[in-house]
Design a protein that fits this description.
The protein is an alpha/beta fold. It folds into two domains: about 270 residues, Spore Coat Polysaccharide Biosynthesis Protein SpsA, Chain A (Alpha-Beta Complex); about 90 residues, UDP N-Acetylglucosamine Acyltransferase, domain 1, CATH 2.160.10. Helices cover about 25% and strands about 30% of the residues. It is built from eleven helices and 29 strands. The mean pLDDT is about 90.
Length: about 375
């Protein structure tokens, strides 16, 4: 008899990583890769692995998320039994100061009743911003075969000291059992297994962890739970070696999007036929290229109209590039309009930005210039 699994996705845990983009939306609904949102990858990973009961824990700014996922029909999750469930904000019982949850464990404590009522034997947990195309079926099978209580997906990564401070580093023995998880180390650098915030856990184990956390006011899954009992519990790793984007800053967000312009990365993320990345379907006209326009090494979504030049850039749906305009190394969100003779370099323009004629704006790859949603930029 096949083992059954349900899914839990955390939509807001890392909003502070890119506050420019999460002022008006949850992290889960941040645009990525020309036509997708962050949550598309977590949802697709689960659906492609046969998980049809998916719960998304929200915090705030979740209206754009609800607009994007709707009933879940685009992921085949519009079902009478199971399907997609959006869990609205609530006060976390684990929080001492009665504020909304701020950690993964606090979020789980706030849905303890739901976890207890789940009939599935396994729970697959994923952050919304784990940008990868992982074979969860294989991960679940290895978890079951090993008899583990929890299996964490990890990726071998070379870290700088600054980058390591935002990661959870895993130490494991030769058999793959976890001996220690170092959460946000202060002075680590070098190559190490890094948690990519996807895990498979036995439902009974999760329920036990949550009830212990509530009774003892624990808030951190790694330091309060895993490290304290790692010697007596079966916690294992699953090594993932495919494409993975870890967005911990606006610069990371820019670089991760730009990396998709490389064919090898694009194929690793979107080119696996058995595991397609699904998203909300829109009935838009194909992109239109006017005579004299030029596009080089760029991703152009449907509904765009190009009269000028676009190089090494990513244009979401409905972007208009005016005559004589040059767009280089940019990310333009949905319905950004540029006038004529505009020059943009290393710019991230949020939705519905209007850039009038003759404007010149340039950032740098390490510090991209960001234009907030709905802004009008004029040449004075």
């Amino acid at each position: 008899m096949a083992v059954t699994a349900a899914g839990i996705i955390f939509s807001n845990l890392h909003d502070n990583n890119i506050p420019e983009l999460t002022r008006v939306r949850t992290m889960a609904s941040v645009p990525f890769g020309c036509r997708y949102r962050f949550i598309d990858f977590a949802l697709s990973n689960m659906v492609n692995s046969g998980i049809t009961n998916v719960n998304v824990i929200t915090h705030n700014n979740y209206h754009s998320l609800m607009d994007h996922v709707g009933s879940g029909k685009d992921w085949d999750l519009a079902r009478r039994s199971g399907g997609l469930r959006i869990l609205p904000p609530f006060i976390s019982p684990a929080s001492k100061d009665s504020k909304l949850f701020s950690t993964r464990l606090e979020a789980l404590c706030s849905i303890s009743d739901l976890i207890d009522s789940m009939k599935e034997e396994l729970i697959v947990m994923s952050d919304c911003d784990s940008i990868c195309n992982i074979n969860l079926q294989e991960m679940i099978a290895k978890h079951v075969a090993s008899g583990a209580d929890i299996t964490f997906a990890v990726k071998k990564t070379v870290l700088t000291a600054e980058k390591a401070h935002s990661e959870a580093i895993v130490k494991s023995d030769e058999e793959g059992y976890i001996t220690e998880i170092i959460d946000q180390p202060e002075d680590f650098k070098g190559e190490q297994d890094v948690v990519i915030n996807i895990s498979v856990i036995n439902k009974d184990t999760l329920s036990s962890i949550v009830h212990e956390a509530r009774s003892k006011n624990y808030s951190n899954m790694y330091t309060d739970i895993i490290n304290k009992v790692s010697s007596s519990k079966k916690f294992r790793i699953y090594r993932y070696d495919g494409f993975y984007a870890d967005v911990t800053s606006m610069t990371d967000y820019y670089e991760c999007n730009m990396s998709i312009l490389e064919k090898c990365n694009r194929d690793a993320l979107f080119g696996i036929k058995s595991r397609p990345v699904l998203t909300k379907v829109r009935n838009s006209a194909p992109a239109k290229y006017i005579n004299g326009s030029k596009v080089v090494n760029s991703m152009i979504a449907d509904g765009c109209v190009i009269e000028g030049t676009v190089e090494n850039s990513m244009l979401f749906r409905g972007v208009i590039v005016g005559k004589g305009t040059v767009i280089k190394n940019c990310i333009l969100f949905q319905d950004v309009h540029t006038g004529e003779n505009v020059f943009l370099n290393c710019v991230i323009a949020d939705k519905n930005v209007n850039i009038t004629d003759n404007v010149m704006l340039s950032g740098h790859r390490t510090v991209p210039f960001y234009i907030e949603k709905g802004k009008v930029i004029k040449d004075r």
